[in-house]
Amino acid sequence: MPPILPDFSNSVKIKYVKLGYQYLVNHILYLLLIPVMVGILIEVLRLGPDEILSLWRSLHFDTVQILCSSFLVIFIATVYFMSKPRTIYLVDYACYKPPVTCRVPFSTFMEHSRLILKDNPKSVEFQMRILERSGLGEETCLPPAIHYIPPKPTMEAARGEAELVIFSAMDSLFKKTGLKPKDIDILIVNCSLFSPTPSLSAMVINKYKLRSNIKSFNLSGMGCSAGLISIDLARDVLQVHPNSNAVVVSTEIITPNYYQGNERAMLLPNCLFRMGGAAILLSNRRSHRWLAKYRLVHVVRTHKGADDKAYRCVFEQEDKEGKVGINLSKDLMAIAGEALKSNITTIGPLVLPASEQLLFLLTLIGRKIFNPKWKPYIPDFKQAFEHFCIHAGGRAVIDELQKNLQLSAEHVEASRMTLHRFGNTSSSSLWYELGYIEAKGRMRRGDRVWQIAFGSGFKCNSAVWKCNRTIKTPTDSPWADCIDRYPVHIPELAGGVLYPKFGGRSPHNGVSGNKA
């Protein structure tokens, strides 16, 4: 007997009912206004020429009335345009691509761990298990100082990494946009764990000899969501400085923050964080209206620092041996979920179509009045956005957001592939993800992008962008030489060993002196 096919009639009917409901609610104003306008037009056409002429003559206007009405219209228009926020454009951005000499295959990472933690094999085994489940690939990179055995996290090495990452991203941005250093009016640099004196923003000003009246800011200690905080700060500054360019640099310097102790909660960042950085050009100049890639629509920030558990869930501290590292709490995912809930509660009314907001409201009223056990309605954010850039903090973060927001595998593809190719690059990961979508040729004019990032404190921040023009596949992207290999299958465990689907075994880094 042939297999019995499932009955799709009910699901098809529900699908068309839902589509009809969404169209009806989202276009209710047009559907109501069109009959009214048609009725008025029919009544006007029924009038004869003499009746229309007599109606016009019955309207008497003197000079004073005309002048007052004209003044009122001009005054209202002036107030409207002066109070309207300036449009912020994302002209272009550039992501740093580490050199192949900085690559850290799993075999290299574990070999170093065994040598550095030779007195604690359980910590080595723990790191291996984390790597196997992390979602990282064989091509992620660590800075040169970490390749030494033991690592050499000196101030000089940390400055060297900062200069390499930031200057490379800035040079690439200048090349892509044609921007000259003297054209930068606002500079914002964010780096959480490396905050030297002079600051990193001063380092950029010194390198490129920027103007003496530049408005510079240096943000530190704000975690992986600091990139969107910098975007929010740039937006606010651009609102009060017309005809200006703002450059935002987002990075995390790994060199001084590589933990060499035995505490498992503090070894976790060693397995996830990798080199990376991005430079972004924002502008409020009208001349950039047609050149810019994106337009900033919303920035929503949520801070849960008033709660003690949230405040301490990502905490820099010393272990029992006095070694400094970042302690990641077991409550991290639960706290991130609460922060995300607060954030989407705020951003939902700004971006969701009326049909989703109405369903959410009706469900909420039903739970309050009829049955509190009713399952709460999760809004369909796929109705509001075409693309999602979820902070590539780890496989668990992406899995949870995909599940809670009911996203498809394609919606989180950019996040998973960024984690695989570049690792957790902290605040710059969102820009690698946006670069992935562009490299795949998926970004079209009018598409909406939702960037979501989490950071210590604890923070959840969102930014919404609208694509200004259809973007051709860039040839100078960090994805340019490998995009054809993606997406790749993120493998599950196979006999305790992680087997990548492509690329084979990565070449081992060369040895120079005591550098492995």
UniProtKB/TrEMBL annotation:
Enzyme Commission code: 2.3.1.-
Record-stated family: Belongs to the thiolase-like superfamily. Chalcone/stilbene synthases family.
Broad class of where this protein is predominantly found: membrane
Catalytic activity: a very-long-chain acyl-CoA + malonyl-CoA + H(+) = a very-long-chain 3-oxoacyl-CoA + CO2 + CoA
Transmembrane segments: 20-42, 63-82
GO biological process, any: fatty acid biosynthetic process
Ranges where the FAE domain occurs: 80-368
Presence of keyword Acyltransferase: yes
Pathway: Lipid metabolism; fatty acid biosynthesis
Keywords, in A-Z order: Acyltransferase, Membrane, Transferase, Transmembrane, Transmembrane helix
Compartments reported by the entry: Membrane
Gene Ontology, cellular component aspect: membrane
The organism's taxonomic lineage, starting at the top: Eukaryota, Viridiplantae, Streptophyta, Embryophyta, Tracheophyta
Active-site residues annotated for this sequence: 224, 303, 387, 391, 420, 424
GO molecular function terms noted in the UniProt entry: fatty acid elongase activity
Name listed for the protein in its UniProt record: 3-ketoacyl-CoA synthase
InterPro entries reported in the protein's UniProt record: 3-ktacl-CoA_syn, ACP_syn_III_C, FAE1_typ3_polyketide_synth, Thiolase-like
Record Pfam families: ACP_syn_III_C, FAE1_CUT1_RppA
Chain ranges of the Beta-ketoacyl-[acyl-carrier-protein] synthase III C-terminal domain: 386-466
Source organism (scientific name): Populus alba x Populus x berolinensis
